[in-house]
Each structure stands twice: as structure tokens, then as C-alpha cells.
Amino acid sequence: MFPGQGSQTPTMREAVAELAPELLARCIDLVGEDPFPRVAQSTRFAQPAIFCASVASWIALRAAIDSGELERSWEPRAFAGHSLGELAALVAAASITAETGLLLAVRRGELMAQAGERDGGGGLVALLGADERQVALLAEAHEASVANDNAPGQVVLAGARDALRELVGQAREIGVRAILLDVAGAFHSPAMAPAVEPFRDLLDTVEISTPRAPVISCASGQPIADVRSELAQGIVRPVRWRATVLHLFEQGARELVDLGPGKVLAGLVGRNLPELAGIEAASLIAGGGRIEIAA
User: Which of 44, 160, 167, 217 is the most exposed place for a label (fewest CB within 10 A)?
Assistant: First the structure.
């Protein structure tokens, strides 16, 4: 599983420099500067930086698998990515090259940043502990839409920033914790529509192969059938991460590995599947390949 925006860590650039120096150099070239110091400033910088860090993590795990460094035979049966993470998942599934994935990540970040600026005040608010009825009530009252359904009691709404501020107040009144996120755009909502067509235009120019293993769409919770169409439309479609994790479980997955950076997705495994815990990729390699389950 490959994470999306918000998963950055202070040391992720070091991992990229060590494991994928050519990818780092190409990233700096495409962005026009080193994006890592500015990850928190804009999705334009966050997306290529997190993509590179995710690919570096995959390179490390793939090398450990191929060298027999792991304690036992282990091979991924499926891949998934949270929003931006789908690009890294497609790289791991040998559907696109790392170079192509980086090109797409850079352009995707640019287009979504531009759409956010054009949107003029759009944003996101995280609802914690809300049930489905409360989510629907708040969304309807403030003309917001679901951007992320990450787990039971963990939903993100997108909408106009002024309306979201009012939503935060109403949420508190009904006993729901609401956090206005520090992002410049109503991501995964109709506000991102201006980014779809130009991103699809780029997708039509790159080479895409059939994945060597299923890549589960975070928008549908089902295997991606049309990579170009689903990546483009995914910009405006909500992230259905809960459905994605449940699909993996229903298909027999019992070891769900968070390829990082960070451990956001490892934590969401337990929220969706209390009988399991997510595995941090680093723990598969550390200590001679011992598999340690992340709490």
C-alpha cells in the first residue's frame, strides 16, 4: 500500500538520495527546484516528493525480496495506493516506469495546485468519530462532499473554506470532532475538475502496461481496469480507502504492508480491520527480515 499527501517524514529525502539518486535528480529537474524542503507549502511540491519516497521504499523492499533477505518467501499479490499513491502502486506493479510515474506526479501536483488556486477558498475538513448520519447531515447543510472515506469514524469533507468553518462549529455542537486541514484546495471533489482534462492529455502520451498484479483503485475499491481513465477521474472522485482495504481482505490479503513514507496506512488497517494490524515496510527488512506487526 502506498500513501498519499500528508504522509511525509523529515528523513524521507535521505532515503531517496540513497536508494534512488537518479530519480531524485530527475525530480529536481522536473519541478525546477528541490521539492522536499517545501512539501508542506503546496501539493505542487508534496506530490513529487512523496512519490519519490514511496518508490524508494519499494526499491528497498523489492531488493530484499529478490536477494532472499527476508526470513521467508514473500511476494506481493496486489497493490493499492491512497490517491497519489496509485502512481507508486503502478510502478511497483510494473505498469509504468518510475520515470513515467514521476512525470505524472509532478504534473498532477501542478494541476491540482492550480485548480485549488482557481477554486478560491476551497478546503478540507476531517471528521473524527462521526457516524454516517452525522456526515450526511453536515455535508448537506454546508454544501460539502466526501473527499476521503478512510475508515469508520474517519471521513474528510471537501467544500468552500468559509462553509467548512461553519461546518466545524456545527460539528462540535453535535459532538463530532472536526479539524480544518491545512490544504489549499477542495481535493477529490468537483472543484478539481479543471485538472482532469490536461492530466488525461498527458496520460495519453505515456506508455502504460498491464499490471503484473491487480492494482486496486482507491476510488472504486476494485481492480483498475482502465489506467488512464481511472487516474484522470480519480482527481475528482472521492477516495474510498475503507472499501479498498476491505476488498484486499476479501480477496485473501492478511499482510497489508505500508510502503511509506510514514505509517498512516498501517494505522488505517487496524481501524478498518480490528483483527489485523498494518505492517510497516521497514520492519520486513530490519533485523534480518523479521516480520514485525506495527501496533
Answer: 160
Identify the bridge partners of residue 257 per DSSP, sorted by sequence position.
279
Q: How far is CA 153 from CA 81, 126, 156, in A?
A: 20, 10, 10
Q: How many helices (H) and strands (E) does the chain have?
A: 12, 8
Q: Residue 185: left if φ>0, alpha if ψ -120 to 50, beta else—which one?
A: left
Determine the residue type at 235.
I
Domains of the chain (ranges; CATH) run: 12-117+189-289 (3.40.366.10), 122-180 (3.30.70.250)
| Rounded Cα gap, residues 270 and 283, in angstroms | 17
The secondary structure element, H or E, covering residue 125 is strand 122-128
CA–CA distance, 192 with 113 (Å, rounded to integer)? 9
- Angle of the 43-67 helix axis to the 12-19 helix axis, nearest 10: 50
Query: What pTM was computed for the model?
Result: 0.94
Percent of the chain with pLDDT over 70: 96
Q: Does residue 119 surpass a pLDDT of 70? A: no
Q: How far apart are CA 15 and CA 59, in angstroms?
A: 10
DSSP 238: P
* CA angle centred on 149, ends 144 and 153, rounded to 5°: 95
Residue with cell 533485523: 287
What is the widest separation between alpha-carbon atoms in the chain?
56
Helix (H) or strand (E) holding 126: strand 122-128
